[in-house]
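user: At home tonight, take the chain set out below, taking as long as you need, and be ready to discuss the fold:
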Amino acid sequence: MNALNAVKKYFANAFIIAELEIRKIRHDQTQIWVRMVQPALWLAIYGLAMSKLNAMSANIPAGLTYLQFMTPGVLAQSALFVAIFFGINVVWERDLGLLNKLLSTPASRSSIILGKALSAGVRGIFQAVAVLVLALILQVHLIMNPLGILGVFVVIILVSMCFSCVSMAIASLVKTRERMMGFGQVMTMPLFFASSAIYPISIMPSWIRPLAYVNPLTYSVDAMRDMLATGNLHSLPLDFAVIVATTILFLVLASLGLKKMIS
């Protein structure tokens, strides 16, 4: 019974932290709108241009247009771009003394990290809805099954949590906003291009393919592509297992690093 109460308290603390973070979106929506621009450009300009060139038609799964193939990749990219800079917020909170106050509460370090990661997942959902709406405006044929859409949102939440934890773990090492911004910018493009987001792994240079297979973004893209485009769900259990395991791993690492933020 005590263990059950401890678990309830743990998740209650995490949800309180998440709710506090989500309030920031209500007070300042600028970041949400600004970060919708880049995914929109990738889908509306790059995607349409590549579709007209037919450059990928021979390499993508049969029966899919390039925009169908690319839309899940842009969904994953939008979540990545929101989450990977999340560590900057933690550094900012430390500089203002807010992190010290947070760590002095009864909430455990891991519940604090979990709460912040959950709020990153909510931000990712806003981005995902915008990308899906744009895809429908561009008349991209997607499988709009309610369970599939729910599954896509679950993947978006998990991948946002995963990369926000990566960002917070790095923030505990670099400890300044300037360095964190630099690391975020350095990481986003390699993570994006070393995944199956905009082209199949089969056409990658041989030295990049191993990176794609250990990149959690690849598995999130594949899961969403299965649910939105191909309808082939055979690899879905593996994709979810990898995403969940990676999220837990970086949640633990970010929790361990949180105390270093104030040392």
Notes: The first helix runs from residue 2 to 27. The CA atoms of residues 125 and 231 lie 22 Å apart. The two ends are 36 Å apart (CA to CA).
